TrEMBL record:
Coiled coil: none
Entry keyword annotation includes rRNA-binding: no
Superkingdom, taxonomy of origin: Bacteria
Listed GO biological process terms: carbohydrate metabolic process
Official protein name in the record: ATP-binding protein
InterPro entries for this protein: 6-hairpin_glycosidase_sf, Beta-AFase-like, Beta-AFase-like_GH127_C, Beta-AFase-like_GH127_cat, Beta-AFase-like_GH127_middle
Keywords: ATP-binding, Nucleotide-binding
Domain Non-reducing end beta-L-arabinofuranosidase-like GH127 middle: 437-536
Domain Non-reducing end beta-L-arabinofuranosidase-like GH127 catalytic: start-end pairs: 21-425
Residue ranges annotated for the Non-reducing end beta-L-arabinofuranosidase-like GH127 C-terminal domain, each copy included: 538-654
Length: 661
C-alpha cells in the first residue's frame, strides 16, 4: 500500500487518494487488467487450496475452531494472504467489485474469529497451542510472527482507506496492543527477539497515520528501540550492529528492504536525523554497489557475511537470499527475490517522500518495469521467485528455485506481493505537495487533484510510454484555478528531448537534465497542455570494472526498458557464441509474445567461426578460429522473457570493438 503521509510532519509530498487516479489505456492498464482478471483470482485459488502445500485459508478456519485439523503450509502464509487481500482491495477500489468486497468482508470476519483475546494472531502458533495446551508463541526466529502482524496492519489500513470500514482496523489495533505489551516487557528485561522480515514497522506507523493515535507512533519507536536489545544478532537479520550504526546493506534482501522502509516511515513522523543518516548511507551502498541492472537486489541464495568478525561458528556468518560483497552480482545464479525488489520499491517511495529527488523514482521505475512485472508471465498465472539475468541450456547443479515460471511455488510470498504492487501501480504516477505536482511513473491515466492551496482540476495523461517517449498532459475540469507548479521527472536515462507548454517550447533537454525535475509554473490551469518529448535511442550500458562477470560486456537498454536475448531469436547453438558490435544499429519492430505486443529490437551481431567444432563440454580448450561471422538477432524486453518455452536467455553480451559494416 502506498503510504498516507498527508499529515506526516517530515514528508514533503504525498500520494493521491486511491480513487483519484486510474490507468485508462496502454501499458499499465494492460498489466492491471491481467493482474485483476487472472493473477488475483489465481493466487486466491492457491490460498483456498486446503492441501498440505498451501492450506492458508483453512489454517484460519482451524484456528477459529470452525474446522478441525492441524496447521499446514508455511508459517508466513498468514502474511502472504494479507498481501493478496490488499491486492484484491485495490481491484474493489478500481472496479467497484461488490462481490469481491463481500468476500473480503467474510475473510476479515474469519480472521477476527481466529484472533486471540490478547490480540495475538498467527495461525501456526494458535493451532499448536490449542491442540497441546502449550505456548509456542515467539518460539523460533523463523516463524515470521512479526511479518504476519505487519502485513495484517498494512492491509487493514488499506481497507479503511478504500472502503471506510473499521472491521479490519479493529483486528489490527488489537494486534498492536499485543505488541505493545511484548515490547514493554522486552525493554524491562533488556533483551529482545530477532524479528525477521520486519513488516510491522511499516504496519504500526501506518496504523498511527490511519487512526491519528499517538500511541502507535510511540509503539513504532519502541519497536526500533527493542531491536537493539537482540543478543548475538547476525548480519542476515541486520541486528548484529545497533540500528544507528548501519552504513551498508547486508543480509537477507527482503528483511533489509522491509527494515529500511519501516525506518523511513518512522523518520517521516519524528524527523530523527540519526535515522536519516542511516537511510542515506545504506541507500547509497545498495544503489551504488549492489543493485542489478534489472532493479533486482539480494544477489545470493547462500553465502558468508562480508562484514564483521569471521568465525568458524557458521551460524554467525551464513546469509541467504542476501546482499553479498560490493559488486558481487552473478548472472546465472542471481537470486533477486521478487519480494526484495518490491521492498526496495517501497523503501524508495518513502525516501522520495522524505526528499523528492528524481533518483528515487529512477529506481522505482527500473524495478517496476524490469523486475516486478518480469516476475509474472504475460498470461498472469505463472511466477518467478528468483529473477536471473542469464539462463543456460542446463546446469550441473540445482538452484533453489526453477529457472522457469510456475503456477505453484511452495514458498508463495512473491506472487501476492507482485499482485499488490501492480494493482496499486497507478498511485506511483504522481506525488503532490501543497501547490505542486511531481510526476512519477509515466503512463496513460486520468487523475483528479485537489491541492492544499485550493487548486482543483483533472489531468489527462496521454502516452505510449514505455515504448515511446512522448508524454502529453492536458489540464481540465477546473473547479479552482489558482497558480500551481508542475515538476516533470526527467529520467536518468535521458540523452535528449524537449518540453512544450501550450505549443511553445520552453526547454531543450540534454544529458545535463537527466535524473532531475524540471519545474513549470502555471498561472492559469484551465486549458494548459504540457508535452514532454524524451528521445529513446538504444544505448549500450557497461558495468563497473569490479563487476567481474560483466567485464568487456554490455547490456542493451532503450528508454526505461532492459532488453535480452532468448533462444528463439538467435540462430546459434548457444547464446554464448554471440557478440555485439560497439557500432551495432538497431531497428524497433513490434513483435507478439503470448498474445501481447512488445517492441523488439533487431540488429546484426557477430559469432565466432571455429575451424573445427567447438568442444562444448571442455572446461578449457585451445582457441582455433577463422574469424567472425554475421548473425541477425531479435532482442525482447527483459520483462517478457520465459513466455515461449525453456530456452537460453542472456542480458550481458561480449562486446566486439573491431570493424563491422
Amino acid at each position: 500500500m502506498l503510504i498516507d503521509t498527508r499529515k506526516s510532519k517530515y514528508s514533503k509530498v504525498h500520494s493521491l487518494p486511491v480513487q483519484a487516479i486510474d490507468w485508462n489505456e496502454g501499458f499499465w492498464k494492460e498489466r492491471f487488467d491481467v493482474c485483476a482478471d487472472v493473477s488475483v483470482p489465481h493466487i486466491r485459488s492457491q490460498f483456498e487450496d486446503d492441501s498440505p502445500t498451501f492450506h492458508v485459508v483453512e489454517n484460519f478456519r482451524v484456528a477459529a475452531e470452525l474446522h478441525e485439523g492441524e496447521h499446514a503450509g508455511t508459517p508466513f502464509g498468514d502474511g502472504d494472504f494479507y498481501k493478496w487481500m490488499e491486492a484484491a482491495m485495490y481491484v474493489v477500489a478500481k472496479r467497484g467489485d461488490k462481490e469481491l468486497e463481500k468476500d473480503l468482508d467474510a475473510y476479515i470476519e474469519l480472521i477476527s474469529k481466529a484472533q486471540q483475546l490478547d490480540g495475538y494472531i498467527s495461525t501456526k502458533q494458535i493451532i499448536a497451542d490449542k491442540s497441546s495446551g502449550g505456548n509456542s508463541r515467539l518460539g523460533h526466529v523463523n516463524d515470521f510472527e512479526f511479518y504476519n502482524f505487519g502485513h495484517l496492519m498494512t492491509t487493514a489500513c488499506a481497507y479503511k482507506r478504500i472502503t471506510g470500514k473499521d472491521s479490519f482496523l479493529k483486528v489490527a489495533e488489537k494486534a498492536a496492543g499485543y505488541l505493545r505489551n511484548l515490547y514493554e516487557e522486552q525493554i524491562r528485561k533488556g533483551e529482545a527477539l530477532t524479528e525477521v522480515c520486519p513488516s510491522h514497522y511499516m504496519g504500526i506507523t501506518e496504523l498511527y497515520r490511519t487512526t491519528g493515535k499517538n500511541e502507535y507512533l510511540e509503539l513504532a519507536e519502541l519497536a526500533l528501540k527493542a531491536r537493539d536489545l537482540v543478543k548475538n544478532g547476525t548480519n542476515d537479520n541486520q541486528d548484529r550492529l545497533p540500528l544507528r550504526e548501519h552504513r551498508k546493506i547486508v543480509g537477507h534482501g527482503v528483511r533489509s528492504t522491509y527494515l529500511y522502509s519501516g525506518v523511513a516511515d518512522i523518520y517521516l513522523e519524528n524527523g530523527d536525523e540519526e535515522l536519516k543518516t542511516v537511510l542515506d548511507s545504506v541507500w547509497e551502498n545498495c544503489v551504488g554497489k549492489k543493485l542489478y541492472i534489472n532493479g533486482g537486489c539480494g544477489a545470493l541464495y547462500s553465502g558468508t557475511s562480508p562484514y564483521g568478525e569471521f568465525s568458524f561458528d557458521m551460524s554467525k556468518n551464513v546469509v541467504h537470499q542476501a546482499f553479498g560483497y560490493e559488486y558481487q552480482l552473478p548472472n546465472i545464479t542471481a537470486y533477486n527475490e521478487t519480494c526484495a525488489t518490491i521492498g526496495n520499491i517501497m523503501w524508495n517511495l518513502r525516501m522520495f517522500a522524505i526528499d523528492p529527488q528524481a533518483k528515487y523514482f529512477d529506481i522505482i521505475e527500473r524495478s517496476m518495469l524490469n523486475l516486478s512485472i518480469a516476475s509474472v508471465s504475460l498470461s498472469g498465472d505463472r511466477y518467478f521467485y528468483q529473477n536471473a539475468l542469464r539462463r543456460v541450456k542446463e546446469l550441473d547443479h540445482e538452484l533453489m528455485w526453477p529457472l522457469e515460471r510456475t503456477g505453484t511455488l511452495t514458498c508463495f510470498c512473491c506472487p501476492p506481493n507482485m499482485a499488490r504492487i501492480i494493482t496499486e501501480s497507478s498511485e506511483y504516477a504522481y506525488m503532490i505537495s501543497d501547490d505542486s505536482i511531481y510526476t512519477g511513473m509515466y503512463g496513460a491515466n486520468t487523475a483528479g487533484f485537489r491541492l492544499s492551496n485550493g487548486a482543483a482540476f483533472t489531468i489527462m495523461q496521454k502516452t505510449e510510454y514505455p515504448w515511446d517517449g512522448r508524454v502529453v498532459m492536458e489540464f481540465g475540469d477546473v473547479k479552482e484555478d489558482v497558480p500551481i507548479t508542475v515538476k516533470l521527472r526527467v529520467p536518468g536515462w535521458l540523452t535528449g528531448g524537449s518540453i512544450t507548454v501550450n505549443g511553445e517550447e520552453i526547454a531543450d533537454l540534454d544529458k545535463s537534465h537527466a535524473s532531475s525535475y524540471f519545474s513549470i509554473d502555471i498561472d492559469k490551469i484551465d486549458g494548459t497542455r504540457i508535452e514532454l518529448q524524451m528521445d529513446m535511442p538504444v544505448r549500450l550500458t557497461v558495468a563497473h570494472s569490479y563487476l567481474e562477470e560483466n567485464i568487456n560486456q554490455v547490456a542493451v537498454e532503450r528508454g526505461p526498458l532492459l532488453y535480452c536475448l532468448e533462444s528463439p531469436d538467435v540462430p546459434l547453438p548457444e547464446l554464448g557464441d554471440f557478440m555485439l558490435p560497439a557500432s551495432a544499429k538497431f531497428k524497433s519492430v513490434p513483435y507478439e509474445i503470448s498474445g501481447k505486443t512488445v517492441l523488439s529490437l533487431e540488429t546484426d551481431g557477430l559469432t565466432v567461426k571455429w575451424n573445427k567444432e567447438k568442444d562444448r563440454q571442455a572446461l578449457y580448450q585451445t582457441l582455433d578460429i577463422e574469424g567472425p561471422g554475421r548473425v541477425r538477432v531479435r532482442m525482447i524486453p527483459y520483462f517478457a522473457w520465459d513466455n515461449r518455452g525453456n530456452g537460453e536467455m542472456m542480458v550481458w553480451f561480449p562486446l566486439y570493438f573491431g570493424e563491422f559494416s
